[in-house]
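Progress against Task 2.4 (sequence-to-structure conversion) is shown through the following example record, which the project officer requested during the mid-term review.
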Amino acid sequence: MTFFKRFKAPILLAALLLLTASGLMTGWTARLTAPLTQRNLAFLDASIKDTFHLMIPVGAAKAAADIVEGSTLNVEAGAVFAKAGMTIEAGDSLQPLLDYIEVAWNLLLASMIYLVTAKCVVSGAGATAGPLLAFALGVFLLNSLVARFAANQQALRQVLHRLGAIFLLCTLLFLLIIPLTVAGSAYLARHTTAPMRESVSASFQKIGKVFSLERFHATDDLKEKAVVLKDKLSELGLYAKDAISDVAFAVCTLAAVKLLNGVVFPLASFGFLIWLVRGCLWPVLGLSERPLAGEDLRHLSDFLRHPHHPQTPPS
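Structure tokens generated for the chain above:
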């Protein structure tokens, strides 16, 4: 009975370590966090789908803009020659419109990269937390054994305790903080930017139709292609004069939505959770930083001079 009382903590830690290493602990935590993970993945899938749907008209407009911007066409004897002469070029009035389309495309591309990365992290968070928890438990077990067989090794015990606490916090990072960060971002986005996405989508669908080059790609006749392109340039010139403010507003709204959903909301949620964990668990795990008092310095100095002699741990 005395043996069990003395080694109760190492036995408990060893049992938890065996459960974690066998996968049972990971399976239990996966079942507990499964509803939250499913909601987060559904939110990220919907965001990826919305971004992809926006990329279709913007991509079509960008492709048309690249054709228009780089067009220097010479119509002669029913053929199109890329040489000097009578040319058809994108006018200066189109340049701001083309710049806005380029900005929108870059925003959507960055957003897609972020969303796919976030989905990968959320999908693998549970699997990543398992090894981190096993390592933390192993370090705590070693610290517990050192406390019973080498109680004078205070410096080693402090290092082991701090290392185990850090890996335990890393486990919480992947197991709870990251999923709750995504859930908090989804909640904020649902109640703030969701209505804005509909107007942005409608605006870019209209832009995609205006820039559509279906007639250009539908014909194989080079002279007809030149005529179609010339008509499209005239149409875009008129559209740019009337709709430049609408396009600018749509791009600015898109930038605001992506900035809020991709940067502000995740950082706000993550910062709040880190502040909460730091306030609650930092003192419990012994990670609170405080200046060394005179008594602490004396104990530390004695330990450095006589590392093999038992020392009274600092209070």
